[in-house]
Amino acid sequence: MIERIDTMTYQDCFLTAATTLLDWDIPVELLPLTITNQAASLVGWEAEHRGSSAWD
Q1: DSSP 24
Q2: Which of 8, 36, 50, 56 is most open to solvent, judged by the fewest CB atoms within 10 Å of its CB?
Q3: Domain count, the chain
Q4: pLDDT band at 4 (very low <50, low <70, confident <90, very high)
Q5: Per-residue pLDDT for 35 more than 70?
Q6: pLDDT at residue 32 above 70?
């Protein structure tokens, strides 16, 4: 799991998530969604801030 750092901006979180998730065994089709989800989790955004359902 990726550790959340409070001083990171969304762009920092996005790049961290992208770099980390490239090492995971995830289908290429799911990478954009997974990277966005991980970056939002790192920056501390809840589901309502992302415009998606809470159960994804």
Answers
A1: S
A2: 56
A3: 1
A4: low
A5: yes
A6: yes
